[in-house]
Amino acid sequence: MTPEALKHLTKSDAALGRLIRRVGECKIDLDPRRTPFQSLVSAVAHQQLNGTAAGTILRRFRALFPGKRFPAAGDLAKVTDEALRAAGFSRGKIASIRDIAAKTESGVVPTSRKIIRLTNEEIIERLIAIRGVGQWTVEMLLIFKLGRPDVLPATDFGIRSGFALTYGHDELPPPKKILEHGERWRPYRTTASWYLWRAVDLAKQDGGGK
Prior knowledge:
12 helices; 2 domains; mainly alpha
């Protein structure tokens, strides 16, 4: 992220500025090689799971398609629901990734070349029509595939936890409160979000991993 982002966030929000100074440089792990199909399937795998569990499921999923870094949408028809269940996907998530595949092939899910020309709002509007894909899932795509600089996934548990830690709340704040507070972070809300995730990591370290 740019020095301008850190300067703006530090100047506009003292508590966030202290967190930024403690954490250091922002290092968002972008993967532009991911297709929108891959990004959505990966995000669905992470729904309501921690990163380790989701990573295990995705490794098992990729193993169903030998010789490929990640399957294409059309490849999904080659595997059974039973195989996907064995990889760790719930029945609801299987229905979701099959709909992602179908809508990728029909063009509802844009190609990598086309999606970069769409606004955040256009992308969200198109993709939330897919079964099991809500705004959070699309926001993960906006951040980690497209690198959009002004995304604030306020419903994310980690964001809500990091906000509570940073601003001294005893309970998780509602998404509306985070969005209202986050207006001061524009146009760098993605960077602010990354630091709120790191606040949770710091708390785990301070607590000895508990």
